[in-house]
Amino acid sequence: MNQENLSFRGGSKYVLDDELAKIVNVSMALEMPLLLKGEPGTGKTMLAHAIAESLQMPLIVLNVKSSMKLVEALYQYDTLTRLNDSRFGDSRRNVSNIEEYIRMGKIGQAFVSEVRTVLLIDEIDKADSDFQDDMLDVLDQMQFDIIEIDKTITARNRPVIVITSNAKKDLSDPFLGRCNFHHIAFPDVGLMRLIVDVHFPNLDKELSEACIEAFYRLRDLKGIEKKPATRELINWIRALKTDSHFQMKSLSRGNTPHMGILFKKSADLTAATQQIARMR
């Protein structure tokens, strides 16, 4: 594949609008990280999977944790294995060669890969600002140092970088200034129809419309902390399709079977159930 003429137009199970396709392609052309914000379930993470699928690149995922240090994303020095090897002396590794005990982290793996990769840095807002800014320094320079062996790792191929944020914590201005930014809004009814059609090409249109109408009605309920997202709708439709006792007319009457698929928190499920009961 000619890496100079890559163009992303969507994945087999990923529906996107023109603006999102443009910002993905612009970010690849400018070799800048793409920062995606939006509520959970809007497809931020799945976009990286779709890019990897479409461009036939390996996907490497760094799931950011609140306690994570940047060095963990770059490499780890396995001191425990080296200690065991030195004590028991039955390893094929050369204990005096520290490099044999260096393991690449997710960013390191993307840098040393023989082929260009898609690097997904998921939920960056969980990390502190020092992690964020230092990470972008590494991604700008496309290199980092392994201090234990005094060696610089330089990226063989610049990865396509997708960074997601659930906007739970503000990102620093320097961080925002070094990324291309796109906010993925929750799909409107028209786009959701396209998404459902992609996942269920043979779904009865009347059933599809009934499910989508019920889904948005449930999202509008009051006092719900975690509103059902697109993946919940897809799983809910799967459940309805396999339920031999399900009758579509029940949806129009306000009945909602399998609500545990849509609402993942006990308090939300209770609140939704009570509100639906009052509506009947």
Number of strands: 9
**Total number of helices:** 13
Placed side by side, the strands forming the largest sheet appear as 2-5-8-1-9
Overall number of structural domains: 2
Low-confidence stretches: none
Which CATH class of the largest domain is shown? Answer: Alpha Beta
Main sheet attributes: strand count, strand direction, barrel closure: 5 strands, parallel
Radius of gyration: 23 Å
What would the principal axes of the Cα set say about the shape? elongated
Within CATH, the superfamily of the largest domain carries the name P-loop containing nucleotide triphosphate hydrolases
Question: What is the CATH architecture annotation of the largest domain?
Answer: 3-Layer(aba) Sandwich
Strand content: 5-15%
Under CATH, the topology of the largest domain can be stated as Rossmann fold
Helix content: 40-55%
From the N-terminal CA to the C-terminal CA, the straight-line distance is: 57 Å
